[in-house]
Amino acid sequence: MSVILSPEEAEKLAKDRVLVSDFKQLKLEKEAQKNWDLFYKRNSTNFFKDRHWTTREFQELKACREFADQKLTILEAGCGVGNCLFPLLEEDLNIFAYACDFSPRAVEYVKKNSLYNTERCKVFQCDLTKDDLLENIPADSVDVVTLIFVLSAIHPDKMHLVLKNIYKILKPGKCVLFRDYGLYDHAMLRFKSGSKLGENFYVRQDGTRSYFFTTGKMLSFLFMYILSWNKSKSF
Q1: Could you tell me the CA-to-CA distances from 198 to 26, 64, 157 in Å, in that order?
Q2: What GO cellular component entries does it have (predicted)?
C-alpha cells in the first residue's frame, strides 16, 4: 500500500539530508548489541505487545502442512522477549520452535517466562550476521523461518548475511515469513533531523537503528539472495 505524504512531511524528508558522522556510525555498529541489551534492561518484557495475529496474517503456517496435524519446526529469528513465540506456541500445539535473539538479556527473559518449555522450544543468543545457526539447529531441518521486524534493525550492508545464514537450516521448498517497517511509516516520519544514517536508515535516541523498506527494494533484495542459491526455498 502506497503512502501519500502531506506537503509538510514531504518537505521535512526532502530537507533531511545531513547524515550522522562516519565515526558515530561505526560506533553504533560496534555497540549494536549493547544498545539492544540496554533497551531490554530499561523496558523488561513490557515494551512490545504479544503478537496474537501471526497465524491470522501468515496463512502459510497452515498452507505449508501436508496434513492438518503435521508437526512443524520453526525458527523465530530475532525473538525478543517472546511476544510472537509464546502466542504462537499456545495457538498451535503442533509446533516446535527454535528462537534466537541478538540480546543476551532478551534470551534470558524468554527462558524465565513461565510458558518456556524445552520440550517445545529452544532459545539461544545469536548474531545472525556472523554466528553460524548450524551450531544450534541441524541443517535443512526447519519448515518456516519468521523474520518479523528483524532485518530493519540490521545494517543494510549485512542483511544478506542473515539470509545466507537462515538458508542453511531451512528445508528445501519451505518458506521465510517476512514483515517489517515500510517507507514513510509513522515511525520513520517521527525521526528528527540528525537521525539519518543513510537512505531510509535511521538511529533512535537509544542507539538502536531502523531501516524502512520499499516493496521493490524488499523483493529485489530477498530474491537476489534466495533464488540464486541451489535449493528451492521461498519467501
Answers
A1: 13, 37, 11
A2: cytoplasm; nucleus
Q: What is the mean pLDDT of residues 177-204?
A: 93
Helical H segments across 58-168, by residue range: 60-63, 85-91, 104-112, 159-167
Cα–Cα–Cα angle for 27, 135, 144, nearest 5°? 90
Residue 224 has pLDDT above 80, yes or no: no
Beta-bridge partners for 123:
99
User: Residue 118's pLDDT is what?
Assistant: 96
> What confidence score (pLDDT) does residue 221 get?
64
Q: Alpha-carbon dihedral of residues 161, 55, 42, 104, nearest 10 degrees?
A: -40
CA dihedral 179, 184, 190, 196 (to 10 degrees): 90
Residue corresponding to grid cell 541451489: 230
